């Protein structure tokens, strides 16, 4: 790569040359991206640094290829001028870079607003002056408020649960400024690019930093929240020549929000706020448009279709009555007649629109979130409850989700015997998948007492002493946690499980138990000093002397641990029991063969070799200031044994993935770890079979990028494992899955998961995850338990089934109301129901049983069915026919009840059908109505009969909705006690508006006698028989 005649590749290694000469050649150059001003301004004749010292938003990438000496020259140049005054001036150019805040929005239902507008319009057209004119808009306003309150209340509760789980990172950093002689602690958001930042063990990195100087033997960083790596990463100052390096490979960069596990370093802040790697992730989140859930899409489609049908029916009703606009009842005024039938059309719209549906759906989803919360699944977005039910793919992060994110030793071996070229190893397995200091050491499946094996005693001694970490019991959380580096904590946990000195730990508190066995070992030997880990020798060691209280006849010793290939090269002997045996070629080959098998086999273990130097040099003979001589001090070693560790899968994950497979859900692992480890974990948890060929089913991020777009789409269709990926890969994978109409759930806990969490139909964050991940998700697993997802999916499927039932219940009732209004208009009958009565039924009376239907028990085989297609209509053809059949009967029975009072009731006028169907022509001059008071056609009795039949039929219809196709004989009413209670309350409310003044006046109703109630019951009960016949047809013909 060249730019203006300058070979940039040479600049990657410019620290080995005269950097000033190189810079004088060209003041601007490319490193694969745009040139940063901070680089352009470093030259022999540069002007003083001003605002241009701020780097471009290329983050650390532009600094990867620069040598440490070059970066240090930048360091010195900036340090001379970065005063506090200058800092405050420059900081004004930057927006404070804290975490993004969560917002909570309330969405009012447009259908209800439309009805509200229409009702107010009808009121003004009518010109009513009684209290009834105010009832209709007032009732709608109340339900709008109730609907909003329910939604906000539930989502607010969910947000409170999220707040309780959040633990924000310390927002502090340490910087050098020109007018201060020592390092200063400031708020991290006050750091600007160009600041000289110091970090040390225990710190959280306050910005993206290019390392210029490491002030310790080694620098380890835990960057699992950003990259998903299970173990800490060793950093250095050397250039990284690969311009396509992923974050995991940028070993000369520190990233904002990651943790310093060991060491101390100084560097230049090259990016802050949205320019950091974490900031880029937030930008991705902000740019990601939230897709509508399948439920929202179906309800939108349903609402659109319903609106069209209602509009056509309303226009049709108005037009077929044009001939009646001049009837005498309207005073011969065509305008008054048109307004009257417009009101009839409005009543029809009110009847057709299920005004109570939004509130019922909200309540049902809210109840679902409560049930999920009891299973440790906290839902932040109500529609996401139902989305889980149609999830077809779960894209899961590995670290902390499928695995524990707690390194554990699972295997170890020591030398059993050496006879010539023959060597026998003793291999042991260790149980336990967390930092809990409890587990068994077994050999060939049988538990062993480690204290009887001399090799294990020495191995435990090395693990305890060659270690700077420890276990800690967090009393607030009730769990054991690491203090220090994950690998060393795993060794501490191993020592506790081995208990080689048979320490009595049964009566110790959990706090005392954490390091009980390690403490015993540390009392035997005193650690004098440590030779820190270095990249060249790939090991660390400690120099120990016998404690004064120790009676063991031993002298000073060095204990060494490190990469097997590095340690074994410096070994001259192997330990067999308590003796030393020369390390021959065949013995070495056998040891390395086992280690290779462990590292590349089913488990892909990370192996550490453990060794001692029985007769080390005296302390006075060692130069501890020169780390290049450490390898010489670690020569003539005796190999003791080897341990293999990994970030183990959670115990319950294998069963959960099997349940997902039975439910037709594909599980995909997406991780930042290397491919070998990822595939090994997939085999352990059942995503891949033990001997399954993973060619074409497992990819690294680089391999995926090298594919064409078509090949990427095909890979996403069949692959189940992605390793060494970056956030952009995760979002792309989700996008491709969505192009196949897959409903995707993304689980994760790190900042790197956040964009994909937001892009997926449902993002599922872990309770112990980062605040950014939680804010991007729709659901949080409080217990970090992958199996909770399966329970949540089951709940989602049950909720959808129940939702279909109460939608069926509400729509069939509304169809009945439409038929009622249409029949009265088409047949010329008096109004059977008026808008305020319809609103009362739709919003109040129907709402309670519909909500109770949300408590229907799930079907037994609900997790044995494949996920439903997102394109599956909410209302199928057969379901639509059932709506029409039941609704038709409801409408006919309602009109029939009103007509019965006019024609046959002893307390009614007992007129003829002709007089009833031509009531608008009623006048004293019309001979067809002699002896009839025309005001009888406005009596409240027929309306009360019609409304009572409507309410009673709908209570019977609620019983029909207990199951879509199961008979009431198989699914009796008492299977859902909430429904019985809701029906009782709904009937009580109906009696209330009939018998308690002044409600009868408000709703234009009156009292009914026993005879009239018997007619109501006779007209209502047949709806159960009709639906039983329809269920029988569905069971025996359609399902088959």
UniProtKB/TrEMBL annotation:
Swiss-Prot/TrEMBL keywords: ATP-binding, Calcium, Calcium transport, Ion transport, Magnesium, Membrane, Nucleotide-binding, Phosphoprotein, Sarcoplasmic reticulum, Translocase, Transmembrane, Transmembrane helix, Transport
Highest taxon listed in the record's lineage: Eukaryota
Alphabetized InterPro entries for the sequence: ATPase_P-typ_cation-transptr_C (IPR006068), ATPase_P-typ_cyto_dom_N (IPR023299), ATPase_P-typ_P_site (IPR018303), ATPase_P-typ_TM_dom_sf (IPR023298), ATPase_P-typ_transduc_dom_A_sf (IPR008250), ATPase_P-type_domA (IPR059000), HAD-like_sf (IPR036412), HAD_sf (IPR023214)
Pfam families according to UniProt: Cation_ATPase, Cation_ATPase_C, E1-E2_ATPase, Hydrolase_3
Cofactor list: Mg(2+)
Transmembrane segments: 99-124, 130-153, 306-324, 344-367, 806-827, 879-903, 977-996
Catalysed reaction, written as an equation: Ca(2+)(in) + ATP + H2O = Ca(2+)(out) + ADP + phosphate + H(+)
UniProt domain P-type ATPase A: residue ranges: 169-285
Location of the Cation-transporting P-type ATPase C-terminal domain: 830-1033
Membrane topology label: Multi-pass membrane protein
GO cellular component term of the entry, any: sarcoplasmic reticulum membrane
Record EC number: 7.2.2.10
Subcellular location: Endoplasmic reticulum membrane; Membrane; Sarcoplasmic reticulum membrane
Gene Ontology terms, MF aspect: ATP binding; ATP hydrolysis activity; P-type calcium transporter activity
Chief location: endoplasmic reticulum
Function as written in the Swiss-Prot or TrEMBL entry: Catalyzes the hydrolysis of ATP coupled with the transport of calcium.
Family: Belongs to the cation transport ATPase (P-type) (TC 3.A.3) family. Type IIA subfamily.
Entry protein name: Calcium-transporting ATPase
Species of origin: Paramormyrops kingsleyae
